[in-house]
Amino acid sequence: DGNGVVAPRSVRIQxxxxxxxxSAMLGRGGLAFQSERLDISGPEFLKIKDLTGQVKVxxxxxxxxxxxxxNIAIQDKIRILNNSNYAYYSRVRSNFNAQIERLVFELTHxxxxxxxxxxxxxxxxxxxxxxxxxxxxxxxxxxxRPASREAAAFSPVGGVGVFRPLKAVTQSVSGSSVLTAEExxxxxPGASNEGEGAVAAINMLxxxxxxxxxxxxxxxxxxxxxxxxxxxxxxxxxxxxxxxxLYNRVREAISQVKTIAGNQNKAYGIGAFCFLQxxxxxxLSHGGDGTRAGYRALMESLYSDFVSDFCSGQNPPAMFxxxxxxxxxxxxxxxxIGMAQLDLATSGQNYFGVCPAYPFPDKGWHLTGNGAxxxxxxxxxVMFRVxxxxxxxxxxxxxxxxxxxxxxxxxxxxxxxPLQWGRPxxxxxxxxxxxxxxxxxxxxxxLPIFSVEIVADTVVKITFVRDAVGDVKIxxxxxxxxxxxxxxxxxxxxxxxxxYEYNAGSGQYADENITELVGKxxxxxxxxxxxxxxxxxx
Length: 538
Description:
It is globular and about 80 Å long. It is built from ten helices and 24 strands. Helix content is 22%, strand content 24%. The two termini are 51 Å apart. By secondary structure, it is of the alpha+beta class.
């Protein structure tokens, strides 16, 4: 007014969820507040009411911004989804898991288990051939694997139950001996010898652990790796009670290491349980459970047995898993094994999904030595974030899809935005797909894709050739059209410890000499997990 006094009013949300207004008198008389309650009922997310009593819905109960015609501009919708996706992953990362064990023991045992991608079948020649003395990592005998590929026992290679510095080796076909470099180079394509062997994962984890604690080395706390898996087995065959009981390999590795630790007066504990399996459950001819619910239950049972059998007196270790994908994928039960693994990885419990297996260079089914070591870097990265930094973690995956007429907006949980397109390696060739690894079906059958675009940091838009009908399934990294591969990844800048390596005459295939990779750190962008995304046309 003429005396310079104004009366602004602001909306205030009270602790009980009701709305109120503050009427402030500003001027020579000082500052005074007057509150009143606004009766704004209804389920909407955000409403405003002016002084005349007019009410306007800003965000409705479904998170939409309604316009006069009841619709919302697509760009506004994308902004809302993008902001919501950022908030989603912020909550994920801040979810500290106080229940799982940390790397606190004088001797921390890390168990690697599963089938052929856990044992690194065909991953020869071994690349991480020299032990890093400053890291101080260990193995039992002359390999992190036992001296037999199939026996239900963990007999150390070399016949000695002593700790050796951790390094990668390639073993004979039976597993009983270690090959020389000359013997490795003479192997023929397709030879099933087990190589590399998860060594690089433990080395990188150890390096990050020391760096985080501002240490060059720490002989008072060491890591030891035991790789106990068996190629070509279902999860049922790897679980307790099977015949033969291959799970006994885990039991004996833990027993032997624990005994030696006791003899050395070292406190012993298990720091992580890494499980890489699913291929034989995807192939129903092997008799394993190939359903989403069934496989998840088997995974949960295996983890529960592991904790109860070996982890008394300590917190349960985290279980780190990958997603079975690539050529091993099967669409029969709608990616059931991969979906069960994703269910666990997003359950908010003690399971952490590291990466899908599809992006890495392979030899048709199994990975190359570089492919295996590249995936090792992902395991180390996620284990470090969870076990050392205490961060929550979920893999890159779609959380929801909204289908309207001839397009869909896919929301993604993205560890490190923005999303981007990459080229996964199929064989040893970086491969692109025009539809980026997506296909779609609806109640009318195949739903042809016209285009796929990244339209925000965390949102993908798929435009269809026609309007979608009824219930829609959007497949990513399916078997039918993409042999288990896809092109979607994020922008994680994390730098790997090791670099891609090619050594002519070592036994590596000539086309492993990939110019864009050789001599460079393995990129650690997180790749989207294979998925069937369900939605209904709005």
